[in-house]
RNA sequence: GGAGAGAUCGCAUAGUGGUCUAGUGCGCCGCACUCGAAAUGCGGUGUGGGGCAACUCACCGUGGGUUCGAAUCCCACUCUCUCCGCCA
């Protein structure tokens, strides 16, 4: 959601930003029209309510003075007014709902620092690190390694749940837990407070972070109007929904592990081999609540925090800045962190770090008080993966495989895994 | 799952149909007193919307209803607490 006053006063600024994202700018005019209608109706409604309040208050006074006849006369007077108010209330609500719907669909604007893209350019590489390993044998793909060493049972996962629900077994399960614990501890030591959230959330939470109302078909729904979380971003960000935060507490830096559930509707068949794209997967997520003054600096350090995990694991990576035409609707600025798969010979996204500015905080109503006694302002909210685990996991298998078929466990994971290698 | 109690302006409480545009205490802010502090006194102190000034509307867990008028009465729901049952 954007600031209503910004859209009213500077519609061209909003149109320009939406155009940079290559999204439909006509939503601005839809907003302005709906807003006009709503405000006109509201004005009329409030006039009628003020009149009604005045009369009712007077009736009370007349009753107290014992002037029953005059009171009865006043009651009769309000009959038409009452009907009119009911009418206007309904009308106003209709207009407000329409406005709200448009507002929830309105994308965020890209930050000035975000480069424009074009049909061929959707990102810029801003940083690279590590060395691509040179193999003196042909590296096997992670799904072959996983099967050969009995780390992941894809077939039985498909049997008990469906494709995209891998079962990690034996040393494979142990390695998964090692990676999760390593990542959470790693970020906790870098100043994030750990959160272990619920895996189901209500509708209001998903509206708060922007998954609803637009993307309901991407979510697994449960009974009781609860949904399985597609990312820990949802529960963690919504921890402070409808709250006013203490300015002294900012920035708040949280991280948490969760399983993530995505229907991936429409993505079937594309890059789904092995652990690349799953319906259930594990991820450690970072969420920050910051003042507008510091949010862009926080985005840089958050991205560094994601990168640091790969450095610790000694995996080659690159950081790309997403151009305006490919940033998600919610974000103002976005960096993706990618890791290199030597067997598939391509870069895999393992983190996406975004500053949403006040887009989510307006939806979720999360504010802070800049000064004691000052009016509350919306906080800036950021999030990023630290990291998406299956692609890191698969890259570890591929990158650290040896000619004899075993796999070396990265040094930082060994204390968690309790051993130096897989297989053999 | 069953029975009961509760949800009021940061906290605690009052309020059971008409100056409640919600009282009081604590906390907080300002001022006075003081060398300073404490104590004391006085004043102020919620959120959101529209106008963006005067002003006005809404909000007493949420949503409906009754009424000229609802924090107050009725219905449904949510959450919290107590007890019982069940259970990892």
Layout of secondary structure:
Elements: H1 4-9, H2 11-20, H3 26-64, H4 68-105, E1 123-129, H5 142-148, E2 152-153, H6 154-160, E3 167-168, H7 171-189, E4 193-194, E5 200-202, H8 203-209, E6 226-228, H9 233-237, E7 243-246, E8 252-261, E9 280-290, H10 295-313, E10 317-322, E11 333-341, E12 346-355, H11 359-364, E13 366-369, E14 377-378, E15 380-388, H12 389-399, E16 407-408, H13 414-417, E17 421-422
Parallel strand pairs: 4-8, 7-13
Antiparallel strand pairs: 1-10, 2-3, 5-6, 8-9, 9-15, 10-11, 11-12, 12-15, 13-14, 16-17
Helix pairs in contact: 3-4, 5-12
The chain binds one RNA strand of 88 nucleotides through α3 and α4.
């Amino acid at each position: 959601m954007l600031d209503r006053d910004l859209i009213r006063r500077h519609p061209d600024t909003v149109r320009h930003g939406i155009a940079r994202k290559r999204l439909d700018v006509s939503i601005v005019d839809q907003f302005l029209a709906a807003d006009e209608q709503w405000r006109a109706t509201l004005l009329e409604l409030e006039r009628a309510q003020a009149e009604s309040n005045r009369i009712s208050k007077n009736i009370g006074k007349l009753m107290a003075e014992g002037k029953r006849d005059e009171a009865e006369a006043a009651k009769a007077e309000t009959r038409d007014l009452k009907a009119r108010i009911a009418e206007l209330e309904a009308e106003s609500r209709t207009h407000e709902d329409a406005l709200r719907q448009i507002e929830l669909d309105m994308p965020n604007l890209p930050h000035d620092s975000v480069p424009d893209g074009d049909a061929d350019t959707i990102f810029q590489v801003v940083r690279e690190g590590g060395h691509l390993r040179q193999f003196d044998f042909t590296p096997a793909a992670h799904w072959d390694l996983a099967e050969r060493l009995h780390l992941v049972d894809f077939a039985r996962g498909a049997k008990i749940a469906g494709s995209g629900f891998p079962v990690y077994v034996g040393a494979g399960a142990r390695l998964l837990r090692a990676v999760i614990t390593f990542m959470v501890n790693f970020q906790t030591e870098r100043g994030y407070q750990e959160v272990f959230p619920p895996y189901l959330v209500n509708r209001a939470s998903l509206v708060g972070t922007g998954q609803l109302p637009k993307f309901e078909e991407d979510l697994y729904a449960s009974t009781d109007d609860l949904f399985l979380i597609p990312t820990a971003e949802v529960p963690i960000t919504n921890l402070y929904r409808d709250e006013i935060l203490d300015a002294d507490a900012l920035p708040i830096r949280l991280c948490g592990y969760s399983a993530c559930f995505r229907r991936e509707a429409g993505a079937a068949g594309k890059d789904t081999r092995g652990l690349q794209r799953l319906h259930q997967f594990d991820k450690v997520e970072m969420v920050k609540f910051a003042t507008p003054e510091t949010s862009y600096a926080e985005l840089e350090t958050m991205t560094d925090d994601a990168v640091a995990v790969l450095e610790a694991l000694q995996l080659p990576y690159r950081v790309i800045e997403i151009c305006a035409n490919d940033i998600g609707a919610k974000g103002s600025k976005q960096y993706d962190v990618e890791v290199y798969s030597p067997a598939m010979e391509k870069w895999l996204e393992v983190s996406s770090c975004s500053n949403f500015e006040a887009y989510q905080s307006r939806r979720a109503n999360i504010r802070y008080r800049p000064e004691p006694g000052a009016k509350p302002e919306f906080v800036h909210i950021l999030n990023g993966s630290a990291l998406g685990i299956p692609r890191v996991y698969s890259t570890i298998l591929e990158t650290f495989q040896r000619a004899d078929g075993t796999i070396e466990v990265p040094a930082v994971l060994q204390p968690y895994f309790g051993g130096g290698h897989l297989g053999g």
